[in-house]
Amino acid sequence: MSRPRMLIKPHFLLFLVSFFFLACANASVSNQQEIRWSQAMTAIDAPVTSFDGFQSNDSLVTLFTIHGSNTVGESLAPNMLISYLKSKGAKNVRLQASGVANESVVKGDLPALGKTVQVAIAAHGSSTGFKGLMNGSADVWASSRRAKEKEVQAAIEVSNLLEPESEHVLGIDGLAIVVNPSNSISSLSKHQLGLIYSGEVKNWSEIGGPNLPISLFARDENSGTWDSFKNMVLGNRFKLSEQANRFESSEKLVANVLQKPGGIGFIGMAFVGKSKLLAISDGPTQAFKPSQLTVATEDYALSRRLFFYTHSQIKNDYVKEFIRFSQSIQGQKVVRDEGFISQNVESMNVGLAQNLPDDYLNMVKGAKRLSINFRFQEGSAKLDNKALKDIQRLAYYIREQGADSELLLIGFGDKRKNEHRSKLLSKLRAMAVRRELARLGIYPQETTGYGDFNPVASFDGASRVKNRRVEVWMR
Q1: 140 with 298: CB under 8 angstroms?
Q2: Domain holding 404: CATH number?
Q3: What secondary structure letter does DSSP report for 154?
């Protein structure tokens, strides 16, 4: 007796084939996500190799040199190097003065090999670091501002300083505006700061303060801190008063503010000391003091990024490893310990303005704000260099929190003639972040946009780009 034949209808056969290919495609996507995830975790952990295989005929070996920003070079870079050399197994790691002002050397001993390694630092201002990188006297350019357009163009033949291979965000700093503790003034707008530093306002009583002449203290021309202040506050409208006293050192500047009852100065957050910190506003927005949240998210009106710049093709393996270390979880802890703002992700409870849309307030109810805002390349929907690294940091944070957490992405933008277009663009930015997270197998529960609601900067001038951001919440 013959066995009955099983008839498979064509449409069912098509279903089986489609199912098979879909399963293969999903497996392929899953494998790719796992590979990307592994690469992201390795990049953010940034393990270093020991000095066990170190070889040199010299007893004292200079690994590389760092030139540039006094803000970075005074304490942050030396302590980052100390942590780096210790993690590689160096002993008796120490910071030594070189005998030249604002120059130092970080040294570490390799007792088993009878050798000492060192990294030299020259902190004479951000502009000097660019010159050092270009003439070969520096391997790393430390800067408290982004590379200027003229610097980008001057370097374009050898490196694109705006590409992620060259531009490395070291940490975030708030440009702190400080006055003498006896001054009753507690907040200023950026415009008022411009009036003060241009000399148009000469007495504190003119802006509601005590009847005291204003003493101006500013960083010197080579300073990235000065460049940041000039760009963010003075702009094209104001010119620095000739009465301003200039300093290469932030610590000396603060010491003078403390000695003068009418003194005012601008410095990095790490140097505030016993001076009085002011809240700053930009246009119609709320005045904020620089804090962990307002600076980490770059919502503070005078927040700025600190940078390491290198050539695109890094030939020195120690430079390459050090840059990765500075971006890692461990390296960012050094940034925090030195009084700057780490890029490691943290969650925070925040108060919200009640004029925000009800559905926004309901969405974030019970959620915690994360200490990152995703921002984009100028005039583009592409994530900027910091944001690309922040994707990895967010993935690391999610791994540490466990699988039960829900992620919310909320986009904002600046004013447009068409309110609908503003809202659409803000949602597209949130979706751009979602796509990058999806490549790692992370799928946010909510992705939306609210247009020009809740601005953190004026809608006029260069600072308006700060409104183009994506907030991250977790519940």
Answers
A1: no
A2: 3.30.1330.60
A3: H
Domain of residue 259, residue span: 173-296
CATH code for the domain of 136: 3.40.190.10
Residue 387 and residue 359 share a domain: yes
Q: d(Cα 302, Cα 190) in Å, to the nearest integer?
A: 9
Average pLDDT, the chain: 90
Query: What are the φ/ψ torsions at residue 70 (nearest 5 degrees)?
Result: -70, -35
* Residues 358 and 461 grouped into a single domain: yes
Residues 206 and 232 both lie in one domain: yes
Read off the pLDDT band of 6 (50, 70, 90). very low
Per residue in 150-177, pLDDT tens?
Answer: 999 999 999 999 999 999 999 998 899 9
The strand pairing partners of 116, in sequence order, are: 60, 109
- Whose structure tokens read 């260069």? 462
Question: Is 338 within a domain?
Answer: no
194 within some domain: yes
Runs of H (alpha helix) within 198-235 = 224-229
Q: Is 93 domain-assigned?
A: yes
Count: domains in the chain: 4
3-state secondary structure (DSSP) of residue 196: helix
Instruction: Tell me how crowded residue 362 is: count the other CB atoms within 10 A of its CB.
Output: 9
In one-letter notation, the amino acid at residue 55 is Q
pLDDT at 404: 74
Residue 334 located in a structural domain: no
Amino acid at 58: D
**Residue type present at position 15:** F
**Cβ(470)–Cβ(413) under 8 Å?**
no
Residue type, 319: V
Residue 217, strand partner residues: 245, 265
Q: Which residues pair with 176 in a beta bridge?
A: 267
Q: Do residue 387 and residue 404 come from a single domain?
A: yes
Whole-prediction pTM: 0.83
Indicate whether 416 pLDDT > 80. Answer: no
**Are 310 and 165 contained in the same domain?**
yes
Rounded to whole angstroms, how far apart are CA atoms 469 and 467? 6
Whether 152 and 207 map to the same domain: the answer is no
Nearest to 436 by CA among 381, 473, 364: 381
Strand pairing category for 215-219 and 263-268 = parallel
- pLDDT (0 to 100) of residue 182: 97
